[in-house]
């Protein structure tokens, strides 16, 4: 099975940017559809962005469309989330997650379908 480790969280100013990274080990990342999810205090975990195995398809939550970009580098076993124009409501713990997917173009938008999770990285946004 795959192990996931996030990095790149921290504090940012409103309007600023952060780049989150997720490193996979134990199994090739190319076997998994990947997603970034977040959870703010008192809120349910939500899918922020997801990407298919071959990077052909991506989806985004409406709240981050045009501001966040998900990408992956299967050769390096890494997934990224570039965040821009950060807003205070983006403040949350961000999780990288993997779903074992048979389809190269499948995007997983349902958080229940993710089997493997990282520990999370905190993103704080100050206004």
Structure characterization notes:
- The chain is an all-beta fold and 127 residues long.
- 0% of the residues lie in helices and 50% in strands.
- It is built from no helices and 11 strands.
- Strands 2, 4, 5, 6, 9, 10 and 11 form a 7-stranded mixed β-sheet that branches.
- The radius of gyration is 13 Å and the shape is globular.
- The mean pLDDT is 96.
Q: What is the overall pLDDT average? A: 96
Shape: globular
Number of H/I helices? 0
Task: Give the % helix.
Answer: under 10%
Observed structural traits:
127 residues; mainly beta
Which secondary structure elements does this structure contain, and how are they paired or packed?
Blueprint: E1 3-7, E2 10-13, E3 18-25, E4 32-39, E5 46-51, E6 58-60, E7 68-73, E8 78-83, E9 92-100, E10 116-117, E11 121-126
Parallel strand pairs: 2-11
Antiparallel strand pairs: 1-3, 3-8, 4-5, 4-9, 5-6, 7-8, 9-10, 9-11
Concise summary:
The protein is an all-beta fold and 127 residues long. The protein is 0% helix and 50% strand. The strands form 2 sheets. Strands 2, 4, 5, 6, 9, 10 and 11 form a 7-stranded mixed sheet that branches. A 4-stranded antiparallel sheet has the order 1-3-8-7, with no helix packed on it.
